[in-house]
Amino acid sequence: MMKQLLLFLFCLLPAGLRANTDTGKQLKVLQLNVWQDATQVDGAFEAIADEVAAHRPDIVTLCEVRDYHGIHFTDSLCRSLRGKGLLYYTCPSKDGGILSRYPIMESGALDSVSINRAVIDVEGRQMAVYAVHLDYTHYACYLPRGYDGVTWKECPLPAAVEEVLAQNDASQRPRQIRIMMRHAEKDIEKGMPVVVGGDFNEPSWMDWQADTKDLYDHHGFIVPWTTTRLLHEAGYHDAYRTVYPSAVTHPGFTWVASNEDAEIGKLAWAPKADERDRIDFIFYKGTGVRSVKAAVLGPKASVIRGKRADETSQDPIIEPQGTWPSDHKGVLVTLEWQ
């Protein structure tokens, strides 16, 4: 009798409360490259605040936070959001910025300003958040497209994938992600899940497989890109690719965004190539965490061979409120934490 009574009372609860009981805490996470401290497009700073206010992510990771003119970017962003009635916390940063709707318990940069870490308190449970902006040099994903990733000049296609990986691994990206993972393992050992958001300046190995080798100017190359492969082998989950496993139907391109307020010459680096890639990521690792929803945030159009064109994929693309602040598109995911 008591069991039946409890079941009846449970059914009387509002649907939202029942969902929380069944699925646990949901956290919305946004990753966005702000394009040189939001200095490249008129009204970019206000546009970033508007996007955060519209979508109200619980965690925001930002790249290219430069603090030009001695003004701390994320502090200013939090003040702007307070003016919109939203409370966000932040911490010092010089490239990878972090905002949180939950209190930040501790924070600090790792190795360089390109990796920033914060521990947030989510209603009594702690989570470690890493904002990373990895090395932009030796941009090897342009080699299969006929451009050198160091000089940006046109070049012959490489003879083998080993040439591509050699140039890629001459960058600091693999070293940087290993530093992040070593530190994050300490968080995981303490029982904290880890969320990593950032501009990796490198594609995912999951997006350069046999099913895409003849797409997007990959020119037959299958490339096990080092940085995302290291994360995968260490047990991290790619939040977007977890929700949308196919890189054919859901490529999830974040580069190059067709920003209508910027000249194409400021956006595209390889005007004769299809240089689209997914280089902005949200990864997670930890017991009881999974990705349940994902979308691209930004203009529907990308730049393809020096021209603007709307995407025709099945990716959910959330178009901006007005001005778009970046040359990247953002990633917006919902994580469920049991």
TrEMBL record:
Presence of the UniProt keyword Signal in the record: yes
GO molecular function, one term: endonuclease activity
Superkingdom, natural source: Bacteria
Keyword Membrane: no
Keywords, sorted A to Z: Endonuclease, Hydrolase, Nuclease, Signal
Signal peptide range: 1-19
Xref: Gene3D superfamilies: Endonuclease/exonuclease/phosphatase (3.60.10.10)
Endonuclease/exonuclease/phosphatase domain: residues covered: 30-328
Pfam families xrefs: Exo_endo_phos
Name this polypeptide is given: Endonuclease/exonuclease/phosphatase family protein
Organism: Bacteroides gallinaceum
